[in-house]
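Ticket #4471: structure export looks truncated?
Reporter: QA, pipeline team
Priority: medium

Steps to reproduce: submit the single chain below to the structure queue and open the exported record.
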Amino acid sequence: MPLARVWENVLDWEHLPWLHRDTFAAVHPLATGRDGWRAEVDLRLGRGAVTIDVAIDRAAGCYHTRTIAGPGAGTDILTTLASHGLRTSVHVEFLVPGVPPDAAPTVGAMYRTLYTRLWDEDESMMVRRQALLDGRLEPGWREVEVDGRRVRFETTCPHLGGPLDAAPIEDGCITCPWHGYRFDVRSGRSADGRGFCVRVS
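Actual output as written to the record:
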């Protein structure tokens, strides 16, 4: 995966409750910028909320994901990246305060399992996006019946290229599984006020 896609993904706070819907319920941005973001993130399964701060150090090729409030406060996940052309190597360190030595293997395994699942979900998004940018993935079309008539729309979300191929249609609208952008498939217009439109024919 090219490093550019990884940095794009790191800055993409908006995808958390959509692409990672089994882990995160909602995200409320507090600050965003070129080198990171801070947000309050609601966790699934009644686990409360955490405040996460993501800070990128491009010169060092790394970023910190720090939990600054809520469960796991004080945790710092340091991810170091190295570009190898079209590939990026990833090294991750979990810095978790207050863990007794006998509990470290269990806590470490828990963090590795969660991080690996989230990374795998992110990677599928990054791979598809890169294929679209490279022109290796042609936009497709989907035809469905809405309100008794056939409608046809493009299956690539105009925001960042999310797949609309199998997303459910409710009240004539489709929701992108990557970032939650909604479109009226009858007209192609935005159904959430965020300004993007999907192509229809």
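Status: closed, not a bug. The export was complete when the record was re-opened. Leaving a note from the reviewer for reference: The two ends are 34 Å apart (CA to CA).
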